[in-house]
Specification:
- This protein has ten helices and four strands, in the order E-H-H-E-H-H-H-H-H-H-H-E-E-H.
- It has 232 residues and is α+β, with helices and mostly antiparallel strands.
- The protein has a single domain (6-207), classed as Glutaredoxin (3-Layer(aba) Sandwich).
- The protein has a four-stranded mixed sheet.
- A hairpin with a 2-residue loop joins strand 3 (179-182) and strand 4 (185-188).
- Helix 3 crosses helix 9 (156-171), helix 5 (96-107) runs antiparallel to helix 6 and helix 6 crosses helix 7.
- It is globular and about 40 Å long.
- Belongs to the GST superfamily. NadH family.
- Its EC number is 5.99.1.4.
Length: 232
């Protein structure tokens, strides 16, 4: 059992996006302390590779009623936060494109900036983040190699790394995002962020493991299950 506190985030999920913003704005010390791990639904290739490792991704299809609920719920939550929102349209998405691209950005020292830029592209601009051209533009804006970042899903080694992440998702019992883990304690949904932050501070602060403040999020360590605040 890993002692490192973990934040499973998805660039796809509106709830993960809002949890990300709340985490940075309200709990920068917690954001600095957790390990950031991308959560993404596997495409056919990744799913086959995962099956060959003896695991099955914890995913259940979202009903039409739940989809319409999320549209309404996210609208309420973003309005309350004063966040701009433009709903993207996903057509045959390949979530490895943005999430494996993140691994390249992380190695290039631009992990936090990449997350911020991709979230903005998806949720504020309504862009298709599974389009390699969109990810290439993000990479260029961050001074990263646009080809390397936007074609990360074509790299066999990064595919293997992605499958290792999927295995971690399965091992930790992550069935949706945002999802927070610290040893045996698990918290699902943006509405559990306050509890997770209090838990983590109580466990780590006495040992001096949590800084009092943090100016930026650390991501150096490296589905649709939905309720009000928990989304895949």
């Amino acid at each position: 059992m890993s002692k490192n506190p973990k934040f499973y985030f998805s660039l796809r999920s509106p709830y993960s996006w809002m949890a990300y913003r709340d985490l940075l704005e309200r709990y920068p010390d917690v954001a600095e302390a957790v390990e950031w791990i991308p959560f993404f639904e596997p495409d056919a290739l990744s799913e086959r590779m995962l099956t060959e490792r003896g695991e099955e991704f914890p995913y259940s299809a979202m009903s039409r009623a739940k989809h319409f609920y999320i549209l309404q719920d996210v609208g309420r939550l973003t309005k309350a936060r004063g966040l701009p929102l433009t709903w993207p349209v996903d057509r045959e998405p390949v979530w490895e494109v943005p999430h494996l691209g993140y691994l390249v950005a992380l190695r290039g020292g631009k992990g936090p900036e990449y997350i911020a830029a991709v979230y903005r592209a998806r949720w504020e601009l309504g862009l298709n983040i599974c389009d390699p051209a969109v990810i290439a533009d993000v990479a260029t804006s961050l001074g990263l190699d646009p080809v390397e970042v936007s074609t990360a899903s074509d790299d066999p080694l990064l595919r293997e790394e992605g499958v290792e992440i999927l295995l971690r998702i399965c091992k930790d019992g992550v069935f949706g995002v945002p999802f927070f883990v610290h040893r045996f304690s698990r918290y699902w949904g943006m509405d559990r962020l306050d509890e997770f932050a209090a838990h983590l501070r109580s466990k780590l602060a006495p040992a001096g493991a949590l800084p009092a403040t943090a100016s930026s999020v650390s991501t150096g360590r490296s589905s649709e299950e939905s309720h009000a605040g928990g989304c895949g």
